[in-house]
Give the backbone structure.
Amino acid sequence: MVVNTKILQTFLDELSTIIYEINRDNIDKGYIEKWQKRVTVYLASIGITRLAHLQFVDTVDIPLNYLKDPNQQTRNEVIQQDFFIARRVLNDILIKETLLKNKNQDNLKKLKLLQAREENFDFELTLAEMICGDNDKFPYRSSHFINTFFMDLGFSFIHNGETRRIWIKERLEELTIIDIHKIISKGLFKRKYFNDDARKKGLNRDEFFKEAFLEFKEFIQESLEANIGLDLSTVLDMNVNLELLFDQKANTSDQSLNDLIEEAKDRFLNNDRQVAIEKIWDSFERIKTFYNSNPKQKKASADKLSKNISIDFDKKFIDEEFKTLTNIGNNYKIRHHETSTSTLNDEHINYLFFRMLSLIDLCLVFLHKEDD
C-alpha cells in the first residue's frame, strides 16, 4: 500500500480538534460525519478497514444524564472511546511507515506484531484475556494486580471494578503497537509473575512459562492467518494450474501423438504413475519429430520446434530444457530399464511428469497457432 503521511497527519490534527471540542461539549455532528467519511474512504483505499465498525456520531447522541453513577466514566470519556481507537489506528499506520524504513531486528518484531493486530479483529480481547488470566495458561490478576501491572509499565490506567477483560481490551485498543510491544515483552512475559503464580498454584514454573509462550505463539500465528482464504486446490488435491494442463487437449495433425499425451494424463489421474511418466516421455520423443518423421531428421525437427516455441523468449534456455529432459529419460527408468538406469521415487515421478507436461503443453500452444 502507498501511504500519504501528510494526509494521515491532517486526519490526526482534525481528530485532536474533535476530541477537544467533545471535552467542551461543543460537538458538531456534521463535521464529525464528514471527517469519518473522508478517513474511512482513504483507509479503505490503502487496505485498512479497522475503523469501519466504529459509530462516532451515534455515541455523540448519548444524553448528558446517561451515567448516573459519579464513580463511573464521564459521558465524554464514554463517547471518546471510538475516537481514541481511531487515533491509535492512524498512529499505527504512521509508525508502520517508520518501522519499514529501518528494518532492524527489533522493528521487524514490531511489524509482525502489528500485522497480527491488523489481521485479527479480536486481537485486543485475546491479549486482554492473557493479561488478566482468564486464559489459564497465564498468571491470574485481580483488579489490584491489573493496576500494578500497568503502573509498572508506566501507564496511568486505573481499574475500578469493571469486567476485567473488557476493561483491559478497551485500554489496549487505545495503545499504539509500540506500547503493545512493551506490554508483551516487559509485562506479559515477566518471569516474576509466572514464578509467583506457579508457587501459589503448585505448578512447575518453567513448564508454566513454556505453556504460556506456546499459547502466545499460536495466537500470533492464528492472527496472521486469520484472513487467509481456503485454497480449494488443497481440498481437491489438484493445483489449479495443473488442472488447466490436464484440460488442454492435444489436437495436432499427428493423432498418434495426441493419443500418447492423453493416455499419459489418463494414466496419471488413475494413479498409474510409472506408465504415465513413460508415456509422457514417449510423447516428448514423438513431438520432436513433428516436422519430419525421418529418424535421420529428428534433430533438425526438434531444433525447428525449439525455435518456434522460443519466439520472444530465450532459445538457449529451451534447448537446454530439451537436452536435460532427454538425458533424464535416458538415465532413469523412464524410457530404458537396464540395470544401469536409476529408479525414481513417487515424489520425483510427480515432479518430472508435470515438468514434462508443461513443456509439451507449451509446444501444443504453438503448434495450434500454426494450424490456425
Notes: The two ends are 43 Å apart (CA to CA). The chain is about 70% helix and 0% strand. The chain has three domains: 1-101, 103-229, 240-371.
